[in-house]
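seq as requested:
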Amino acid sequence: QVQLVESGGGSVQAGGSLRLSCVASGYTHDYYWMAWFRLAPGKQREGVAAIYTGTGATLYANSVKGRFTASQDVAKNTLYLQMNSLKAEDTALYYCASGPSVGRWNSPTDYNYWGQGTQVTVSS
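struct tokens:
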């Protein structure tokens, strides 16, 4: 059974930075998709960034391009999300998601496995 464990959330002032981590375990596939989604009060779950572990190719939501960077440590089965220049509107519960194949990288229903979420709060 695949398990995803996130860490690294917290509270920061606008303009600050945070780095989220997600460790994946239990995969039998060599390569898979890993992604970050976020859920803010009153909003739908939003795809933030995704990475395909086979190539390291990354995809981003327009709202975070240039500020957030997704990366991976293949040896540690870990996905990172470096978040810089944080804004109040980035405040949300951030989830790590994964799946062996996805149709649309930012579609939550395309992912099979989810972490428990980590809270990111940005104060203005």
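The CA atoms of residues 60 and 120 lie 18 Å apart.
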